[in-house]
Amino acid sequence: MAKVVIIGAGSHTFTKNLVTDIVSFPELRDSTISLMDIDKESLNVPTAFAKKLAEQNGFKTKIESTTDRRKALEGADYVVLTINVGGYASLLANRDIAMKYGVNQAIGDTLGPTGVFKGLSHIPVVLDICHDMEELCPDAWLLNYSNPMAILSWAINDYSHIKNVGLCHSVQGTASLLARYLGVPYEDIPDRPWHLEPKWIGESVDYWVAGINHMAWFLELKWHGKDAYPLLRERLAKNPELYSKPGASGSMGADTVRVEIFKAFGYFVTESSPHMSEYVPYFRKRPELLKKFNIDREIMGTVDRTKGEVNRGRRELEVLKQQISSNYKFPTSRSLEYCSTIINSLETGTPSRINANVKNTGLITNLLEGCCVEVPCLVDKRGIHPCYVGDLPPQLAALNRTNINVQELAVRGIVEKDKTKIFQSILLDPLTSAMLTIDETRQMVDEMFQAEERHS
Fold first, then answer.
1. Picking from 38-47, 118-127, 286-295, 346-355, which range would have the lowest pLDDT averaged per residue?
2. CA gap 399, 264 in Å, rounded
3. What residues are paired with 374 via a beta bridge?
4. Are 156 and 265 in the same domain?
5. pLDDT at 239 over 70
6. pTM as predicted
7. Please, which residues have CB within 8 angstroms of residue 443's CB and are 6 or more apart in sequence?
8. Is the pLDDT of residue 137 over 70?
9. Which of 35, 258, 421, 433 could crosslink 413 through cysteines, CB 3.0-4.6 Å?
10. Has residue 60 been placed in a domain?
11. Residues near 291 by Cβ (< 8 Å), separated by ≥ 6?
């Protein structure tokens, strides 16, 4: 019987999905699921949900709930990390400062000034968790969902001995979006969201994706065994409304930025347009560019949108409370997240293929050795096995390196408590360097350090 610990389980929506995913596998229904969060009150609803889900279906799943991290970690086989240190208040404070200086970030949880400072608040906590695991469950797998993914994964790999992978759903989500752009039946996508019943019609779309988190590339995209890129180019050229209209990529708005990157560099990238526009210097440096690439709404609504996410979470919490207290029958269908699939493969030996963030040990040969890369991985009872990719096309490797430069200095600066390296990491950020001088960047970073002290 496996013990799965979810740290940060007070995030009710994500925890609800993860718990449902785990028990969707019959082989995992006798597991112990330990829900841990530092906020006792926030655990009440996810715990009540998990217990009701097990009871409704007659599962033998044991549900635990605790604010004691070490107690939760004792004997764990899998530790799922979903923490958000400082919450939205810290993110908004840092993003407000960056915006004041002209560095406009739509999301800000991965790179740039706010991404680096999010790493500053998260790395010490994450490494403390890893050191607890080294003592209490040294053979457990750490499955990390927290951002900034590459920065955290790099720190875990270099400063702990814990087996780990970083998990994101951008590959699966982009595959589903590309299916729509291609006009391919959604059911033909192997990593489609699992809440849809599987309907295998003919051959599926196939893909081979590698790069870094939030900037990985569909190196191969095939349908019925043939290269699908010519069809994709044709459909996007003939039907620009597919990607340019509001809502083209769901809640992330228009997809104009990614298509522009695709046209310029020849391959489709995994992360949404608002995210991608932050990682390169081309789209956010003048107001007319924001409008041209349909990201002006994203930038003008940045703070409100984040507060809207909080309000949406509150509404979802109220709905979940009502469902728990009623006769509502919770479904046991699976989401698109890789977590439960990994656990099932490791427990049962049923093989699976995922994309995950791992240490670059010669996997992508023209990216920095030791950095964090996102590559295909095979999973079975023996472990998680990253696949060799070789050289990326040089233009893609060049784009990835601009982000890796920031990540490396951020990790070293944060772990070594070296403010100069942290400043230099932001100085190398593509968007920041397109907007600010060295002195302006220094002033911004100094102000962010002051804000960090107030929030710590």
1. 286-295
2. 12
3. 211, 357
4. no
5. yes
6. 0.92
7. 101
8. yes
9. 421
10. yes
11. none
